Amino acid sequence: MSLPPRVTPRAFERLSEIGAAEQGKALRVAVEGGGCSGFQYQIELDDPAEGDLVLEGEGEKVVVDEVSLPFLGGAVIDFSEELVGSRFTIDNPNAASSCGCGVSFSM
């Protein structure tokens, strides 16, 4: 079994800023087929579900479903703010390559 994904304090801080927990929501990080490299990340505010891995910090939650978990082992979920915009990012050691926008990857 590989390491579980981890979430940076900056990502939890951003979830707190947008009030995810106050809305009863968690940040869901999932992997699905598609994108220009074969797999793509789906990141959204959602309700935690039975069977999800729940990562908690600063009163906030990030959840990963059982199907996506093998693809995200050891990944780091972060939040990035740049001049061109801000977004949640995933540094995934399992990805053999990724597209330029960082949304899709291959294994």
UniProtKB/TrEMBL annotation:
Residue ranges occupied by any Core domain in the UniProt entry = 7-102
Q: Which InterPro entries match?
A: ATAP (IPR016092), ATAP_core_dom (IPR000361), FeS_cluster_insertion_CS (IPR017870), HesB-like_dom_sf (IPR035903)
Q: Which PANTHER family is this protein grouped with?
A: IRON-SULFUR CLUSTER ASSEMBLY 2 HOMOLOG, MITOCHONDRIAL
Q: Under which name does UniProt file this protein?
A: Iron-sulfur cluster assembly accessory protein
Source organism of this protein record: Jannaschia ovalis
- Tell me the lineage of the source organism: Bacteria, Pseudomonadati, Pseudomonadota, Alphaproteobacteria, Rhodobacterales
